[in-house]
Specification:
The protein contains 14 helices and 17 strands. The chain has 355 residues and is α/β, with parallel strands linked by helices. It folds into two domains: 163 residues, Rossmann fold (3-Layer(aba) Sandwich), CATH 3.40.50; 140 residues, Rossmann fold (3-Layer(aba) Sandwich). The longest helix is centred in the middle third of the chain and has 22 residues. It is globular. The relative contact order is 0.11.
Amino acid sequence: MRRATLLILFILALAPVGPAVADEFKAIGQFGLRALDDGCYQITDGVGREIFLVPRGRPAPPQADPANVVPIPVRRMAMDSGRDASLLITLGVIDTVVAVSGGPDDWTIPQIKKGLADGSIVSLGQNHALDYEQLSKAKPDVFFTWDESLIPMLAELGVPTVITNTELARDLDTQIRFVELLAPLFDRQRQADEYVARVYAALETIKAKTRQTESKPKIIWGDIYSKRVLVEPGNSWAAQIVEAAGGDYLFMDVAGDTCLEIALERFYASGNQADVMITYRGPALGMATKAQMAKANQSIAGIRPLRAGRVYCPLDHYRQSSHRLDEVLIDLAAIIHPELYPGHELKFFMEMPEK
């Protein structure tokens, strides 16, 4: 514990303090953040668009498209991702959320669940059928969304949009540091720096612990459906934490977006070597047991984790727990090397029963 505390203090000591220097650029995976003059910022979103953050009452930079200007600090936020919304807890601004996709049953973040129930937060319906009328009534300062097809309609409504999805899956560094892209919207850079330092300290502790063993359990991370299989590619944060935690990720040679479809034959070949499988498809998504998963696709029912290994799936709150990413990483390390974490109780995952 003392070593982790000292590491956090060291990382924070290296982090810049005070206001950002004008024209300072920070790459966050495929995203970008540039500090401009007069307290303004320029964000490069997931599809390469330039979004300008402008302090309230000040003119936007001359190069800014008026449709892509966000007043800061943001007071009214709309989002369709629980993963990104949970980072607002880290920044202490979860109370700025005024509209989200889904209903109360789709959310585990207490503040959002309560707001949807009492009407203080507007439900925009499901992602595939967004309720634009409700979005317009909510009057958000900005909408963070994964769906770039929404841009034209939101532009007509006068709602600036930041696209959070990219062509490639987020790697581990981007997953940890995405909060830095959110921080300038609320002037919460210090809180973002503390979060990044905390998660990196946990990661370094995991690496130090798992270096103590020579064993490298073979891991796959994917979802089985009746006619196809999806996997996390080797460039994803999921694959990289497996490797960092002393595992051997069997899809490291696969590259692309998150939840990428691959050939059944390839999945079977790697799955037959694996000791552990991690899947997003748990009871809430129709997979409660290993037997049920094997039945879903008979052609790969014989993979080793389903026969003799272990299978893990997330608990319901996992998808909205980015503010606890350090704890998520520790859970994954304990799954990969349970012998190094005796007595550890999983907080975000469960082992899938046989039947």
